[in-house]
């Protein structure tokens, strides 16, 4: 997944930092979760990514 995102970095003016792309992907995972367990796991993963980005 990360390699795919890095390959998208060459799109000129519309560059989005990798961590922002990851956050968007994890938000989609939360939204698309089919079970409560999947949603909770995705929310935990999202929280970890956001904490890493914010330095917490």
Walk me through what this model shows:
The protein is mostly helical and 56 residues long. The protein has one domain. It has 3 helices and no strands. The chain has helices at residues 2-7, 18-32, 36-54. The two termini are 24 Å apart. The model has no long low-confidence stretch (mean pLDDT 81).
Short note summarizing the structure:
With 56 residues, the chain is mostly helical. Helices cover 71% and strands 0% of the residues.
Structural class: mainly alpha
State the total count of DSSP E strands. 0
Q: Name the helix and strand elements from N-terminus to C-terminus, one letter apiece.
A: HHH
Q: Based on Cα principal axes, name the global outline.
A: flat
Oligomer state equals single chain
Low-confidence stretches: none
Largest sheet: none
Helix content: over 70%
Mean pLDDT over all positions: 81
DSSP strand content: under 5%
Tally of separate helices:
3
**Termini distance?**
24 Å
Task: List its traits.
mainly alpha; 56 residues; flat
Strand and helix map with partners:
Blueprint: H1 2-7, H2 18-32, H3 36-54
Helix pairs in contact: 2-3
């Amino acid at each position: 997944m990360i390699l795919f995102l890095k390959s998208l970095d060459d799109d000129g003016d519309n560059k989005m930092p990798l961590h922002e792309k990851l956050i968007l992907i994890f938000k989609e995972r939360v939204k698309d979760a089919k079970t409560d367990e999947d949603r909770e796991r995705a929310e935990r993963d999202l929280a970890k990514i956001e904490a890493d980005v914010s330095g917490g």
